[in-house]
């Protein structure tokens, strides 16, 4: 495993600044190879060809038929798509709107204020504009803010923005709500795998799970057909809870050989399986490639909340899911080791997790 770099290999350029200065072209560093560019045929989001929307309203209710139906919908979505949207999830819609708007306000603060929170590749925590430390890499058309929420030993509110006012308290409340929601969903996934409801949660580290937030800011792009807001990747963690920009679609999910543009439902979260659940489930559930497109007319803000295993425990397929017919596909690796592996290389489709498969 290579050592972490102390700093970025090249001077950081804020994409928001480029967006404000570029009128009809973008720097070559942001132009993707022709095979990776969004195509006019990849932007379809008809309701019949989109990720499932699941109403969680009766998941914990007394009617077992309703609960069983919801569990079945979640199971089908995990196997068919690796992505689904959830409504009636228990998080206050007003809180969702306020948190997203607060982050939008942050990205429109003066640059000198935002620069106080500039990040490094050592932890990525803070205000950033690139993923991966490969010198000369083709970059994504986005800025972001990354912060730790759990474990408490990593949570440092001084590294969270102090503007707009009361935003730290709001982000803290949002984190508490999403940890609870992710816990409910992990129990559902565990049941669907034929396990006790606490097995997956315990494999994550029980009450010592990790959680972090990355807020994505995608500025207007004068040549959206040449760039991507976020390159194709699967999420390295356990499960991701995305609060999308419900006014501006941008997330695309790979389905077979097609890219499907997700149509966000109002006040819904978009949930997706991460690489760690793929490993724990012995690839019964698979993480799925996704990417983000940009446009020339509107900026876009989204919040990705990552629910992850405890960073220092070996993650490997759950024993009950390893059989003669389905041998263990992955050797043990801690999430810290895997995260460093990912950070060094940057977004690379599904190649990261696939390269871990045991050779035996």
TrEMBL record:
Region (Disordered): 18-46
Pfam families, per the entry: 2OG-FeII_Oxy (PF03171), DIOX_N (PF14226)
One GO molecular-function entry: jasmonic acid hydrolase
Substrates-to-products reaction catalysed: jasmonate + 2-oxoglutarate + O2 = (1R,2R)-12-hydroxyjasmonate + succinate + CO2
The protein's required cofactors: Fe(2+); L-ascorbate
Biased composition (Polar residues): 36-46
Biased composition (Basic and acidic residues): 26-35
Keywords, comma-separated and alphabetical: Dioxygenase, Iron, Jasmonic acid signaling pathway, Metal-binding, Oxidoreductase, Plant defense, Vitamin C
Fe2OG dioxygenase domain segment(s): 208-309
PROSITE patterns: FE2OG_OXY
InterPro entries: DIOX_N (IPR026992), IPNS-like_FE2OG_OXY (IPR044861), IPNS-like_sf (IPR027443), Oxoglu/Fe-dep_dioxygenase_dom (IPR005123), Plant_2OG-oxidoreductases (IPR050295)
Biological processes annotated in GO: defense response; negative regulation of defense response to insect; regulation of defense response to fungus; regulation of jasmonic acid mediated signaling pathway
Family assignment from sequence similarity: Belongs to the iron/ascorbate-dependent oxidoreductase family.
Name of the featured protein: Fe2OG dioxygenase domain-containing protein
């Amino acid at each position: 495993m290579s050592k972490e770099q102390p700093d970025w290999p090249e001077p950081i350029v804020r994409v928001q600044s480029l967006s404000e200065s570029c009128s009809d072209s973008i720097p070559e560093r942001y132009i993707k190879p022709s095979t990776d560019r969004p195509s006019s045929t990849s932007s379809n989001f008809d309701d019949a060809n989109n990720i499932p929307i699941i109403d969680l309203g009766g998941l914990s209710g007394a009617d077992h038929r309703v609960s069983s139906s919801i569990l079945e919908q979640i199971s089908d979505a995990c196997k068919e798509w690796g992505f689904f949207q959830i409504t009636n999830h228990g998080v206050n819609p007003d809180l969702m709107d306020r948190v997203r708007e607060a982050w939008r306000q942050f990205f429109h603060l003066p640059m000198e204020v935002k620069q106080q929170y500039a990040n490094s590749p050592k932890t990525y925590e803070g205000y950033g504009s690139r993923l991966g430390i490969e010198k000369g890499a083709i970059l994504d058309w986005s800025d972001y803010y990354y912060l730790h929420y759990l474990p408490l030993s990593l949570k440092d509110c001084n590294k969270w923005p102090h503007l707009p006012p009361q935003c730290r308290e709001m982000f803290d409340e949002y984190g508490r709500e999403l940890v609870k929601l992710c816990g409910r969903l992990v129990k559902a996934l565990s049941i669907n795998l034929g396990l006790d409801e606490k097995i997956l949660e315990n494999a994550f580290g029980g009450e010592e799970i990790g959680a972090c937030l990355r807020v994505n800011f995608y500025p207007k792009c004068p040549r959206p057909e040449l760039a991507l807001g976020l390159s194709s990747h699967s999420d390295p963690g356990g499960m991701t809870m995305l609060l999308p920009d419900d006014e501006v679609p941008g997330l695309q999910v790979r389905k077979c050989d097609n890219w499907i543009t997700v149509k966000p439902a109002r006040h819904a979260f978009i949930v997706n399986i991460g690489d760690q659940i793929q490993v724990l489930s012995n690839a019964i559930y698979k993480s799925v490639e996704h990417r983000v497109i940009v446009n020339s007319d509107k900026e876009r803000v989204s919040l990705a909340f990552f629910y992850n295993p405890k960073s220092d425990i070996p993650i490997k397929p759950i024993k009950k899911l390893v059989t003669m017919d389905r041998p263990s596909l992955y050797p043990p690796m801690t999430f810290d080791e895997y995260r460093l592996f990912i950070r060094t290389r940057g977004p690379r489709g599904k190649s990261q997790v696939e390269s871990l498969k045991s050779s035996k």
